[in-house]
Amino acid sequence: MSVELAPYDPKNLHLPEEDLLRSGHLACPGCGAALGMRLALKALGPKTIVVIPACCWAVINGPYPFHALGVPVLQVAFETAAVSAAGIRAALAVQGRDDVAVLAWAGDGGTFDIGFQALSGAVERNDDIIYVCYDNEAYMNTGIQRSSATPFGAWTTTTPEPNVKPEPKKNIVEILAEHRIPYAATASIAFPEDFVRKLQKARSIKGTKFIHLWISCPAGHKSEERLTVHIARLAVETGVFPLYEVEFGTHYTLNYEPSFLDVQEYLQLQGRFRHLNEEDVNFVRQSIAWEWQRLRAKIAMGAGLPAPPAPPRRLTPATF
Amino acid sequence: MATGLRLEDLTYVPFSERPTTAIKTGTWKYVEPVYQNALPPCAGACPAGNDISYALLLLAQGRVMEAARWWRQRNPIPATLGRVCPHPCERPCNREALGGAIAVHMVERFLGDVEGDVVPQPAPRSGKKVAVVGSGPAGLAAAYNLRLAGHQVCVFDDKPAPGGYLRTGIPEYRLPRQVLDREVGLIAHLGVEFRQRVRVGREVGFDELRRVYDAVVVAVGFHKSRSLGIPGEDHPQVYNGVKLLERLLAGERPPLPSRMVVVGGGNTAMDVARSLWRVGVEPVVVYRRTREEMPAIASEVEEALAEGIPFQFLAAPVRVVVEEGRIVGLECQRMELGEPDASGRRRPVPVPGSEFVVPCGGVVTALGEVVDLEGLPGELAKGDARQCTPLEGVFLAGDMLDGAGTVTAAVGSGIRVAAVVHAYLTGQGLPQVAPAVQELWPRPLERQRLVEWGKLNTVYFRAVPRPPIHHLPPELRRGDFAEVVQGWSVAEVLGEARRCLACGTCNECCNCLYFCPDVAIHRADGGFSIDREHCKGCGICVQECPRSALILREVTR
Ligand SMILES: Cc1cc2nc3c(=O)[nH]c(=O)nc-3n(C[C@H](O)[C@H](O)[C@H](O)COP(=O)(O)OP(=O)(O)OC[C@H]3O[C@@H](n4cnc5c(N)ncnc54)[C@H](O)[C@@H]3O)c2cc1C
Ligand SMILES: Cc1ncc(C[n+]2csc(CCOP(=O)(O)OP(=O)(O)O)c2C)c(N)n1
Ligand code: SF4
Ligand code: SF4
Ligand SMILES: [Mg+2]
C-alpha cells in the first residue's frame, strides 16, 4: 500500500546540523550560555572568528591548552570585546576577506557596564561586527555580583536580602537602537530557530549588529539545571523578555506574541526572586505591562516611518 | 619587535589548540538521562493491550504494513475490535485537549482491514496440544497466541460457525460478516482447527478433552438468560433477546408482531431494537433508569435514536397484557432514581400508582446473561489471578472468568491465558498472576510509568482537530444490514496517526539532541545515544522531551 502524503517530519526545530561547540567544555551543568554558543555557531558556521572578553565564557572555553570551539577564538580584556572585534574586522578587511564573520561574545557585565563605551564607539563607527551579549543578568563568573542588567528585586551577592536590587534592568537594545545601529534584536535559547535566523540575518548585513540573548544560569539564578530552557521560555511567555528586532534603530518588528502567562510562573522557579512579596510582584506585573505598551508604541511609530536616508560616504579599507 | 621574528617563534603566546573533548566532564554528574519508553494512557486503558502508540508511530511514518503486522502481534481481531469496541483507550488520550482524542478505533479498524502478510510466523512446533472451549473473542485470542507459541490448537464450539457473540450477537450493520470471516480465516490459516457444533459436556466429555489435550482453555462466555419474573412472560410472543438476535443474524425471518417492546438498556437491547427496526418491526425500548445509566455503548444509543427508535425511560415492566391469547401491551410502572447502588448508578424505585401500558404485540427481553456450565464441572465457576482453575491443566478466559462484558476484555483475557498456558506447557512454572498484555509486547517498555498529560511538555504541541467519522444516513439503513460506520481512507488514517503525540515513545523529534548544552547527544541507529563521558546530567533533554521518552536516574558508579 502506498500513499502520497507530505514526508513525515517529527522535528519540532529545524536547525543547521553541524556543531562547532565541542563537548568537555567547562560550563556548569545546564548552562544557558553554553547552549547559546552552540546555537550561535550552528547559525554562523566555520567561517567565524569569536572574540571573548572576561566572562564565564572565557572559562567555559577551557583551560590552557584546551579550546572548546571549532573556530578561532581571541580572548581579550573585559572592557574590549567590541573594539577587539572591530580590530579583527579591520585586519580582515586589509587582507581583502569579507567572508569571515567576526562575533563578539560578551556577558552582560562586559556589555551593559564595563564594555559599554567600547561598544558604543564601535556602533557609532558602524564597525562590521556581530555583537552578542549573552545576558545572565549578573557578573556570574566572579560570583554573582549585580550588573545594570540585573532585574528589579533579584538577589545577588552584592544585593543581598533584604537589600535586593531596587532598580529595574537597563534596556540595552533601546540604547543601541538610539545609536541608529543597522540591526539590533533580542533572542532566547528557548527559541533557537528565531535566534539562528537573527544571526544569519545579522551576518548578511554590513555594519554593527547587536543581539541581546537572554539565558538562564542555574548557579546564579538559583534554578534547577533541567529548567534552563523552560525558564528562558517563560521569560518570553510571561512578557518579561520580548522577542523583537529593530532595523536602522527605528523599525521595530515583534517576532513572537507571548501568551502573557502570569510572571509568578517565571519568578517562582528562581531562588534569586524567592523573597519577593506581593507588592514586588505587582510592580513587576505593572512594569511588564508598561514596557509592552512602550514597545507596541515604538512598533507603531516605526511602521509609519520610511527607511532613513543612507549617508553618501563611508570608509573603505583602502582609506585606512 | 626584533626583525625576522616569526609567529612560530612566539612560544610565549598562550595558544590553545587541544579540543576540550579530552576533558571528561561526564564525571561531574550524579544523575543521568536514559531513554525509556513508557506506557501511554491509551495503551494503559486498552483491555486488549494494543501497543497503540508504536503502531501509530509506524503509520505516521507511512509504514502501513509494519503497523498492521504490529497490531496483530497478539491481537487476532483488530478489524472486528475497531468496529465494535467501546474504545476505552480514547477516554484518557492526551490529545483530547488539543483537538480531540485520537480515533484509535478507526485506526485499528483500518489496520485490521489491511490485507497481505499481516500475521506473524508461528514458533516451531512444541508437540503440545491445547483444547479451547468456546470460539468467542477470548477463545480466538487464546487459540491465536497459543498457536503462535508453537502449540497445536483445537477450538470446540457449539454454534455453526466460530465467533461467539461476534457472530450470534453483534449485527452485521456493525460488524459485516466478511470482516469476521476473514479474521477467523487468518486464525484457521495458522493451523488452528475449529470444531463447530460440538458442545463440550454433550457431544464431547470434558474429561475426555483433558485426557487427550495437554491443557484446556475454557471460554464459554455468558449464555444462560435471565427472566423478567412477571406474569405473562411464558407467552410465545415473549422472546429472549440473544436467542432472537441469533436467529435474525443467521438470516431467519420469523413472523413477528409489527410492534414490539424491547426490555433492557444494554448492547443486546440496542442490537435487538435496531435489528427489529431493520426487518420492519416497530420497536420500543423500555428501560428502568435513564439514558445516562444505560450500560450500552453510548454511540449505539445515539444511533438507535438517530434511527428514530422510541425509548421509554424510567419504566419497569410489571405484566405482559394478554387478551384473547394475544399480547396487546406491556404494563409498566414509572420509576424514579433513588440512592446509588453497588454499581454506582442510582437505583430506580417505583412510583406507586403510576402503572401504564405500552401497546405492543410482542416483548423481547434483553436483561443480560450468566454462565451456563451445563455438562461441565463445577470447578469452572471461578478462576484465580493466574486464570487457573482447581483442575490441573484447565484455564479460564473471557466473560465467564471476569464478566467484563466487552470484546476487547475478552481478547486481553485470551492473550493472557495463552501466556500462562505456554508457561505451564513449557515447564516454566506458573506466574503468580497472569501477565499484563503490555508485558508481552515485543518491545521494551516501563509499564509502571504512565505518561499522563502532566508528564508531557506540551509547549511543542498544537491543537489539530480530529477528522469527522462518516455514518450511513438513517434513511438508507432500513430494510437491510449494511454497515453504518464508514471506514477512513488511508490518507485520513495517516493524518490521524500524525496527530498522535507518541506519549512515552521517542519519535525522533530531536529536542534532546538540539537542546543539550554539552553536545553530548548524538544520532545513533534509529534514535539517539548519550555520550556518557561528557554528559553532565543537567536533565534539559529530559525536561524538553515533549513526550517523556527519557528519564533521569541516579548514576551508579
Ligand atoms: C448482542 C450483544 C452485543 C454486544 N455488543 C458488544 C459490543 O459492541 N462491543 C463489545 O465490546 N462487546 C459487546 N458485547 C459483549 C461481548 O460480545 C462479549 O463480552 C464477548 O463476546 C465475550 O467473549 P467470550 O469469548 O468470553 O464469550 P462468547 O463471545 O460468549 O463466546 C463463547 C462461545 O462459547 C460457546 N459455548 C458455550 N458453552 C459451550 C460449550 N459447553 N461447548 C462449546 N461451546 C460453548 C458459545 O456458544 C459461544 O460461541 C455484546 C454482547 C451481546 C450479547
Ligand atoms: C577589568 C576587569 N575587571 C574585573 C575583572 C574580573 N571579572 C572577570 S569576569 C567578570 C564578570 C563578568 O560578568 P559578565 O560580563 O556578566 O559575564 P558572566 O561572567 O556573567 O558570564 C569580572 C568582574 C576582569 N577580568 N577585568
Ligand atoms: S481494542 Fe478497544 S480499547 Fe483497545 S485499541 Fe482497540 S478500540 Fe481501543
Ligand atoms: S496521543 Fe497517541 S500515544 Fe498519546 S494517549 Fe493519545 S493515542 Fe495514545
Ligand atoms: Mg553576566
Describe the structure concisely for a colleague:
The complex is a heterodimer of chains A (320) and B (557). Chain A is of the alpha/beta class and 320 residues long.
Task: Give the topology.
The complex is a heterodimer of chains A (320) and B (557).
Chain A: H1 32-44, E1 48-52, H2 56-60, E2 66-67, E3 73-75, H3 81-94, E4 101-107, H4 109-113, H5 116-125, E5 130-135, H6 172-177, E6 183-188, H7 192-204, E7 209-214, H8 218-221, H9 228-237, E8 244-247, E9 251-254, H10 264-267, H11 278-303
Parallel strand pairs in A: 1-3, 1-4, 4-5, 5-7, 6-7
Antiparallel strand pairs in A: 6-8, 8-9
Chain B: E1 18-19, E2 31-35, E3 38-39, H1 41-45, H2 52-60, H3 64-71, H4 78-84, H5 104-113, E4 129-133, H6 137-148, E5 152-156, H7 165-168, H8 177-189, E6 193-195, H9 206-212, E7 215-218, E8 224-225, E9 238-240, H10 241-249, E10 259-263, H11 267-278, E11 282-286, H12 298-306, E12 311-312, E13 315-323, E14 326-340, E15 346-350, E16 356-359, E17 362-365, E18 369-370, E19 394-396, H13 399-402, H14 407-425, E20 446-450, H15 490-499, H16 511-515, E21 521-524, E22 527-530, H17 540-544, E23 550-554
Parallel strand pairs in B: 3-20, 4-5, 4-7, 5-6, 7-19, 9-17, 10-11, 10-17, 11-12
Antiparallel strand pairs in B: 2-23, 8-18, 13-14, 14-15, 14-16, 21-22
Helix pairs in contact in B: 2-3, 2-15, 4-5, 6-14, 10-11
Flavin-adenine dinucleotide binds at residues 84-86, 133-139, 156-159, 164-165, 169-170, 199-201, 219-221, 223, 242, 245, 267-268, 271, 297, 376, 398-399, 405-408, 410 of chain B.
